[in-house]
User: Fold this.
Amino acid sequence: MNPEHPEAREAPREHPEEHESHGGRDLEHGRDPERGKPIGRRIFLGTLGLGALGVVSAPVLQRGLEGFLGEAAQKDPTGLTGLLPNGGGFRYYSVTASVPRKNAGNYRLTVGGLVDRPASYTLDDLRALPQTRMVKDVQCVTGWRVPDTPFEGVRLSELLDAAGVKYPKGVDDAWTADEFDAALKALKAKDSDGKVLDIQEGNGLANEWGTYGFAPIVWSAGGGLLKDGKAEGALDSPAAVSALKTFQSWKGTVDPNTDGNAFAKGRVALSWVGHWMYPAYSEALGDDLVVLPLPDFGDGPKTGQGSWSWGIGADSKNAKAAGAFMDFLLDDANVTAMTKANGAPPATKSALAASELYKQGGPLQLFADQLAKPCGDSDISKSCVAVTRPVTAGYPVVTEKFSQALNAIYGGGDPKDALSKAARAIDRDFSDNAGYEIP
Amino acid sequence: MKTVEPAHTAPSGRDRAPDLTTAPAPPARPARRGREWLHGLLMSGPAVAGLIAFVGVPFCYAVVLSFYNVRLGSPLEPTFFGVEQYRRLFTDPDLSGPFLRALLNNLTFAVVVVPLQTGLALGLAILLNRKLKAIGLFRSFFFMPVVFPMALVAVIWRLILARSEQGMLNSALDAVSFGNWGAFDWLGDGLTAMASVIVLSVWQGVGFQMVILLAGLQQIPDERYEAAQLDRASRWQQFRHVTLPGIRGTLVFVALLTSVLSFRVFDQVYVLVKGGGLDEDAARTVMYQAVTTAFDQNNIGQASAITVVFFLIVVVLTLIQRRIVRPDNED
Assistant:
């Protein structure tokens, strides 16, 4: 910049003036009546004091009002006092015209339906039964929560046992498919949303869960995933088709279980799952949890079995070392440590017998009983229970095709079509690969 | 092209403009040609090498594999299969049914998604192309789904579209219809399975196209709108005769990009079929078919045949599309 230039000299003079005039206008605005009066010290402190007084006196006033309204409600035949806001006591929210009034004299609890000994209890009868006390948090759907609320009374399971509710005690008296069906229908009739069964649908069926969880239906009906290396005739046998048709018909009673909590939260009465859900379920239900075998579709109840397995390559140069390592992995101490961590049934008989969960008399004894009657993967008879999935290098195709068919059937597809298609695809794949025989 | 060499031609042809282009110095020409060619080769080198390594070689390899019976993890030697894989894809009812259905699903997806997503992106871009306070915030909100991985989006939408009254869409419809809406299985019903996939895909992807179109909109000079306003053009006329011609190139690019992306649809279908009760037949796409064949059933030969056929179809469709839009796009 050239200081002698006339324009350059004038410019700096203009700007301060502009700023001054701006500032002047702003100050005038400050005194504008539109802005309102400032809050004075007296008003501010006075408000603060009133607030403090309210905080101190409110509980006393509230208690007085509650006491008065409570008294009035007892004597009020019109029920109008119920409309007044009242912080304490219980309130009924009902969409029906009236709520039946119960007192210690006319209260009755009746247990009926599919039981051996129907019964009716008065309040005094219930008080005479063994009492259980538990302290849980109450969480309301509207969002509030009362922590550590004590509940005391008779456990539902005591009443059901007294009434003689029939449920399977072990593998030998498993429900038949018809009995299971009847149980679903009876439960559905009493359920608000009609969803009474969980099959872990939230995890999807077109995956290994589909095969592990529902191939037992096919096995129990007398079919199989493979018979003598062929799926046609085994997977799409009429018995298997009709069993999966029954499975399909249950969809209306199944909770989609997108949150994975259908059973633990008490939305459904039955859950079709494996041992891995035991920790969560037993924590949620305690002694009310009952472990049942899968229903029998005609050829005895069946269950899936087998998880990770180990192998040593036939041409391995270190077979001896690998064998020693596997001996180490499979001794009781390591099997116990592993299954303690993942909750699965221990894979050696001695570790199983010593397991807290799976031993005789333990809560999951049923699993041990089932494993004591193994079928292997091919010799599936009426008397055995635990079935190994096909031991073949072609298993990825078998499980992919079966679970796809299961998903299609569950989605409403024709069971016969879906199973035949899966069987043809499996067989073609096996013939393309020389039956997956090891050369 | 040749007018970019004024330094050489100017002295010899200052007064004779028509000769300007036809009289370059002859001896310099072959050397320049050679150098240009070399530069061209060098500059395209990285891209061409990448294309050969990641498209050319795998494609040729897939063609070879498709003539063999190849398995993952099989101790058997691959055996020559001839055109058996292709014969099965087109004539065997068990295999051609799902494959042709997958092709149809892919085409449906593309035909619906390309106009829908491009149109929606244009609408959003126009909506967000204004000077508002915190407009950056609004733009980021609409762009946000693009940042989410598709698998995550699929899992969230699974909760929205879940069957039974617990599904968010079902419960919302129930509330709006005063309890007259029964639960509907959006994913499991053959009629709505593909529509559900389309809706969630558009929701996830539209922000990307919106950002590109927004950039296009901001390149249109304000003077054009001013001129149009002086001519008393209505809002619609301004949009029709100023905005649209101004972003024609961008629009064509966005439509091309969307159609290429829409042929690739895979993640959401895989996640929802495997873990969400999506009707497999109604929603399978060719990529889903290829990936499950290759990696769930270990059938590499069959999967290669699927990808080869699909590649050829996509190339043909892309060429047709280029031919249709090219005359308008030539600058």
Summary: Chain B touches chain A at residues 69, 71, 73-76, 94, 158-159, 162-167, 188, 273-277, 279-281, 292, 296-299 (CB under 8 Å).
